[in-house]
UniProtKB/TrEMBL annotation:
Keyword annotations: Heme biosynthesis, Lyase, Magnesium, Metal-binding, Porphyrin biosynthesis
Protein EC: 4.2.1.24
Organism the protein comes from: Stieleria bergensis
Active site (UniProt): K208, K263
Assembly behavior: Homooctamer.
NCBIfam families for this protein: PRK09283.1 (NF006762)
Xref: InterPro entries: ALAD (IPR001731), ALAD_AS (IPR030656), Aldolase_TIM (IPR013785)
Pathway: Porphyrin-containing compound metabolism; protoporphyrin-IX biosynthesis; coproporphyrinogen-III from 5-aminolevulinate: step 1/4
Family: Belongs to the ALAD family.
Taxonomy of the source species: Bacteria, Pseudomonadati, Planctomycetota, Planctomycetia, Pirellulales
GO molecular function: porphobilinogen synthase activity; zinc ion binding
Residues holding Mg(2+): E248
Record-given protein name: Delta-aminolevulinic acid dehydratase
GO process annotations (BP): protoporphyrinogen IX biosynthetic process
Length: 340
């Protein structure tokens, strides 16, 4: 086995196979491309607040919380760009947060109001995804009910079922439980069926890891202060675990999930690939707030080229097998795709 000739008959001074031949021209690189990013792969997470106007989020440069006067514009922008769906996250006023997170099941809470408004304006041209979890509504910032320092499972799951129903009543198309309680998908499916929402989808945050990359999101919805330094490690997955993600996905599918999600994204592309290969179901990845913040901050400093790293990272999700990506770059990426 010496030199390039070892793969063929040629023992000449030149490589028998020249990998660079296919790379020489743009047309050729395009011709052999295996993965492609399209606007149909993008889901745009937006933050809403109950007042008017834009509120910048320091740790998410370029992303603002949108007031009630701006949400319809955002939905129309998504529609006009061809983005299939948006995910709505509320910044709940501190005075509405409680120990039991009652606001989560208020049929007139900020999320429900927003969903109604958006549906009225854009109808079924844009899908609406709503998170199911209690953290935007609880004074402790946890995704479930806390008793004696423990996030209790079954009591929480019952509330999540009701939260899902008020969101579906408001017009939400896809319920996305992000809480990581056991048995929530089954309970939510049951609650939706009972409430006649047979066509409302469930996109389960099936493999969601206890990650430090959620920091800027917690700033955006104002739950960081509530949570203090507490961790979510008793319900979100431990970052070292890989097989466990497959177990979670299997359970969520058995309980009725229509699609599954892996979260965070870039540090967990191995999980995206395993989930897609193992189950072959619609598999989404969430390029979370901390991932966006890193790329965005380095772009602002001139250390990285914003557009290039954003598009390269999104293509990476596709190469790993993701069917779509929740990303704060969505509107920009859609624009860049349209221009290219
Ligand atoms: C709430 C929720 C979180 C995210 C989505 N839904 C935060 C958390 O679990 O603490 C994070 C998204 C992001 O970081 O962009 N359960």
């Amino acid at each position: 086995m010496t030199g390039f000739g070892s793969f063929g008959l040629s023992r000449g001074p030149y490589p028998q196979t020249r990998m660079r031949r296919l790379r020489r021209f743009e047309w050729s690189r395009r011709l052999v491309a295996q993965s492609q990013l399209s606007v149909a792969d993008l889901i745009w997470p937006i933050f809403v607040h109950p007042d008017h106007g834009r509120q910048p989020i320091d740790s998410l440069p370029g992303v603002d919380r949108l007031g009630t006067d701006l949400v319809v514009d955002a939905a129309k922008r998504a529609r006009d760009l061809g983005i299939p769906a948006i995910a709505v996250f509320p910044a709940t006023p501190a005075e509405l947060k409680t120990e039991m997170a009652e606001e989560a099941t208020n049929p007139d809470n900020l999320v429900c109001q927003t969903v109604r408004k958006i549906k009225q304006a854009v109808g079924d041209d844009v899908g609406i995804i709503c998170d199911v979890a209690l953290d935007p509504y609880s004074i402790h910032g946890h995704d479930g009910i806390v008793r004696d320092g423990d996030v209790v499972n079954d009591e929480t799951v019952e509330i999540l079922g009701r939260q899902a129903v008020v969101q579906a009543d408001a017009g939400c198309d896809i319920i996305a439980p992000s809480d990581m309680m056991d048995g929530r998908i089954g309970m939510i499916r049951q609650a939706l069926e009972t409430a006649q929402h047979t066509n409302v989808q469930i996109m389960s945050y099936a493999a969601k890891y206890a990650s430090a990359f959620y920091g800027p999101f917690r700033d955006a919805v104002g739950s960081k202060g509530n949570l203090g330094g507490a961790s979510k490690s008793t319900y979100q997955q431990t970052p070292s675990q890989s097989d466990e993600a497959l177990h979670e996905v299997a359970l969520d599918l058995a309980e009725g999930a229509d699609s599954v999600m892996v979260k965070p994204g870039m540090p967990y592309l191995d999980i995206v690939q395993r989930v897609k290969e193992t189950f072959g179901v619609p598999t989404f990845a969430y390029q979370v707030s901390g991932e966006y913040a890193m790329l965005s901050a380095a772009g602002q400093k001139g250390w990285l080229d914003r557009q290039s790293v954003a598009m390269e990272s999104l293509l990476g999700f596709k190469r790993a097998g993701a069917d779509g990506i929740l990303t704060y770059f969505a509107p920009e990426a859609a624009q860049w795709l349209a221009e290219s």
